[in-house]
Amino acid sequence: MGGPENVVRKPKPLKGEAKKLPPPLQDRLTILESQPIVSPANQDKIDPDIDRMEQTLKQIFQNCSDVVFRRVSIEGEVMGTPPVRESSDALSAKDVLESIPASAPVPAGTGFGTPAATDSDGPPWVTPPEDGRPAPDTRRPRDVLIVYVDGLLDFRHLDDMVLKPLLFDRPHPGDGATNPAEWLQLHAVPVGETRVVDTLSRAIQSILAGEAGLFVEGSDRALIASIRGWEKRSIQEPNTEQVIRGPREGFVETLRVNTSLVRRKIRTPKLKVEALNLGTLTNTDVVILYIDGVVDNQVLEEVRQRVRDIQIDGILETGYIEEFIEDCWWSPFPTLMDTERPDVVAAQLLEGRVAILVDGTPYALVAPMTFWMGLQANEDYYARSMIATAIRWLRLCFGFIALFLPSFYVALVSFQQEMVPTTFLLNVAASQEATPFPAVVEAFLMEFMFETLREAGVRLPKAVGSAISIVGALVIGQAAVQAGIVSAPMVIVVATTGIASFTIPRFSIGIAIRLLRFPLLFLAGTLGFFGITVGLIAILIHLSMLRSFGVPYFEPLAPLNGWHLRDVLIRAPRWALWKRPQTATDRNRKRLKPGQKPSPPN
Amino acid sequence: MPENEKIDANQLMFLLVPTVISTAILIVPNVVAMYTRQDGWISIIAAWFLVLASTLSIAAVCSHYPGSTLIQITGNLIGKWFEKTMCILYIYFFVLYITVPTNEIVDFTALYALARTPPTITMVLFLTLTGLAAWAGVEVIARAAGFMLPMAQIFVVIATVLLMRDFHFDLLKPALSTPAPELLRGSLIPMAWLSETFILGFLTPWLRELKPVVRITWWTMAMLGSTMVLVFLDTFLVLGPLTGHVTYSFYTAIRQVSIANFIERIDPVVVSVWVYGVFIKVSLFLWLLCTAVQRLFALANYRPLVLPTTLFCMVATMWTFRDAASMDQFLTYTIPMSSILFQMLLPFMIYIVHLYKRSRRQ
To answer: Among all residues of chain B, which has the CA nearest to that of A536?
Structure first.
């Protein structure tokens, strides 16, 4: 190879080994090296010079076509920078209109209101300073640069509440404001949620979150006015968690709406909504909800710690967070509960759990989760206790069926035929005789087909989905039996299992059970009832080992706690459930006054 | 995995009861019936009283020395050399308690369920599971045992109800006709099994609080005694004098169940419950074995020992018995004596030394 290429490939010498350059050059180089490379965009300061500020911001938002810069002039004194326009004693609306830069879009909603009357006294800093300096020209138009992301804020609101007052209204004399930005906040911008920030990065952060940033000439701070308003889905009943009795609202994709849904249910200052920001690129708002005094502080601290430790470029769904903070990544069982319903979140918060909401997804996470939460629906608590208990037992039975029925059937017909009543055995034997496969292969085939149908049905549009189910039912059920590929009892078993698995209210637990069916089927096909027992023991040991944020997953059944079984195996009436579950803090167990059992008057 | 595992007093009971009952229900009825026939329940009750005394003495010693196992207590009372000797002896004994029940499981499944499956597969599968449980620790075993106890108890009751149709109460008729020496011989086997409650002395350091130990001992003993008598009566009332001649006689009795031509056989369910019980027993003993070895060599953590110990137990299980007959022989004639030595006499001796030392101190 040639010489120059070798030179290029040679690694650069380390700083200490570098050949010294001639002294004057070397000195300048060291000075340059010691200086941090700072582009104006990286400087985290807000420039009082509005022109430079605008340049900087335009540099930062280069090629961001959805960012709008709007410059307006308001009456006031120019501090620091020399005035561009002629000074005038009284500012008329005409002047203001003329001062609008050509580059800024003309606001749609701004009408020509009555011009502001000539004001006698302006903002507090209008009065000349008393340190003997000559008073600068007063009553100068002061430029305000409004920056926002189009589509993220309510532009009608912006026009009415920010631009119109700035342009037309007589500014209030204010006292107490030491900074133009604060004066804006206190006296000029009639918006509910405003704040003053003093770093550029925070201002940019807020602008990207859909707030309007107001940069005032001569101020090293910026005012942030929250007039967010974007297109959002209306509140609907979630498809995955429908109820017969109970509230019909579900979370939406907007975090603020979601927190308001919870706040409307729990109106106490003890409901804490801790905000944090995750994702180096997405800067997603994440909120940790809990009720102070009810939550177990250890669990809360654990949740906080685990969520804060996440370092990732983007968070698009609570699933991203779940995988970072769950206790056992290789378990089929979820250790965090997901829900779309504000009433479920509120109920869990009242039981001392912690909820995590993420902007951009209607799914909330609840920690710590126990196994039984997966088998309980919110409606259990809205229905009367006896009905709810019966339904819980039904679910429990069908949970077992969903897990065991295929393997039980396979073990029965392949290993322990003597357990089956004789007439039934004859039927089964006849149907098995006609099919080419052993029972376990048949079961695998059918279960596999069932899962395929389910998965296909989920992704397809509704119209096609029903076609799939009809074709599936006909082809898989009827035709497969008639063609002699599978036996009819097997179709019944698989269909029952499939339906049973959908009685489990939480999809994440249901799918874990459906998944575990396959290894159990294999064990049953090879080792019969012994295999099923071995599989069951393995599952139970795993469930006993699992913990969710320090809380045993199978609580209160293992470790056994007799009192709390009244909300697991049965659903005791509300007045009997006067203790909070063990997920709540020990200091505040009592949730209602015991002894409120209703009785007819004598 | 938290090294500072703790179990509740209730969980202690959940651990002890399946440990004793799971293997006892298969062996005890026929051996007892072999010696004492219809008076077997008297033998069981006699054994129960003796075991109650020894278990209570263990509980008394252990609640006097919180945080140390029975072996460490001997170290305190007698001396370091004695502690090491005891440790080695009990390690041998624990190995026996892992291999024998595993062999029972393997033989039983080979006999009744999986005749053509190589026993090695059943054994390896079973011991792997227990190894996992032992690795998970006593807390997890206790939680898993928490399901077992209500399930097994309910099952015994259901079995009794279902068998009631086949009961022949006349079979108990010449009551109290067995001479006392025979009764005592008959009580050796239930004593051997009941006195497995001695592992109480190895579990107390993991208890969250020591206070309820004595109360829990009473509860455990009550549950064990009643279940054992019930199981014996179930078997004997159905099978009669045949009980003494049938291995796995309770199982044979259960096979008589037939309800309305619909449920012909419930014995695979028995097997499942029983396998689960033996699993609790073996994983508990495996855990005890690993912790005993850890103590012997003063290691920091027992978990690295679980895998080699489990492998060793697999080999040992294959090596222990030539066939089911020799196991039967061993269970009937050898185990009672060694059990009584290790489970009752040695702990009782420790209790005596403890009392002696305490009286000297005063």
So the answer is: B276
| pLDDT, position A436 | 85
Average pLDDT, chain B: 87
Structural element, H or E, at residue A140: strand A140-149
B262/A537 Cβ within 8 A: no
Inter-chain touch B144–A558, beta carbons under 8 Å:
yes
Segment A466-472 mean pLDDT:
78
A2 pLDDT above the threshold of 60: no
* Interface contact B122, partner A, CB < 8 A: yes
In chain B, what percentage of residues exceed pLDDT 90? Answer: 26
Identity at B36, one-letter amino acid code: T
- Residue B131 domain-assigned? yes
| pLDDT tops 80 at residue A171 | no
Give the distance from residue B10's alpha carbon to the nearest chain A alpha carbon, in angstroms: 8
Q: How confident is the model at residue A108 (pLDDT cuts 50, 70, 90)?
A: very low
Burial of B2-27, coded b for 16+ CB within 10 Å and e otherwise, reads eeeeebbbbbbbbbbbbbbbbbbbbb
B279 interfacial to chain A (CB closer than 8 Å)? yes
Give residue B241's pLDDT band: very low, low, confident or very high (50, 70, 90).
Answer: confident
Best mutation target among A541, A554, A555 (most B Cβ atoms within 10 Å) is: A541
Chain B neighbors of A530, CB-CB under 8 A? 109, 113-114, 122, 271, 275
Is residue B5 included in any domain, yes or no?
A: no
How does the average pLDDT of chain A come out, rounded? 80
Using the Cβ of A538 and the Cβ atoms of chain B, whether some distance falls under 8 Å is answered with: yes
Question: Is residue A365 classed as helix, strand or coil in its secondary structure?
Answer: strand
The closest CB to that of A541, out of B11, B133, B263, belongs to B133
Does B111 reach chain A within 8 Å, measured CB to CB? no
Closest residue in A to B127 (Cα–Cα)? A534
- B chain contacts of residue A557, beta-carbon cutoff 8 Å: 146-147
A527 and B114 within 8 Å at the Cβ level: the answer is yes
Predicted pLDDT of residue A43? 65
Residue B335 has pLDDT above 50, yes or no: yes
Average pLDDT rounded to a whole number, residues A420-444? 84
Query: pLDDT digits over B104-131, tens only?
Result: 888 888 887 777 888 899 999 999 999 9
Closest chain A CA to residue B121: A527
Residues of chain A positioned with their CB less than 8 A from the CB of B138: none
Phi and psi based region of residue A146 (left: phi greater than 0; alpha: psi -120 to 50; beta: remaining): beta
Residue B4 domain flag:
no
Chain B residues lying within 8 Å of A534, measured CB to CB: 125-126, 129, 275
Residue B284 burial (10 A CB sphere; 0-12, 13-18, 19+):
buried
Which one of A166-170, A260-264, B255-259 scores highest in mean pLDDT? A260-264
Structural domain spans, chain A: 50-127+135-225, 255-369, 385-552
Predicted local distance difference test score (pLDDT) of residue B326: 87
What span, in angstroms and rounded, lies between the C-alpha atoms of B103 and B122?
10
**Measured distance CA(B224)–CA(B222) in Å, rounded:** 5
Does residue B2 fall inside a structural domain? Answer: no
Residue A334 CB burial class (10 angstroms; 0-12, 13-18, ≥19): buried
Amino acid identity, position A298: Q
Domains: count for chain B: 1
At A218, list the tokens.
């001569």
Of B267 and A563, the one with more pLDDT: A563
CB pairs under 8 A between A and B: 84
Residue from A400, A423, A560 to probe the interface with B (highest B Cβ count within 10 Å) = A560
CATH code of the domain covering residue B333: 1.20.1740.10
Q: What's residue A128's pLDDT? A: 42
Q: Residue A363: its pLDDT value, please?
A: 94
Q: What is the DSSP letter of A12?
A: P
User: Which residues form the domain of B241?
Assistant: 10-361
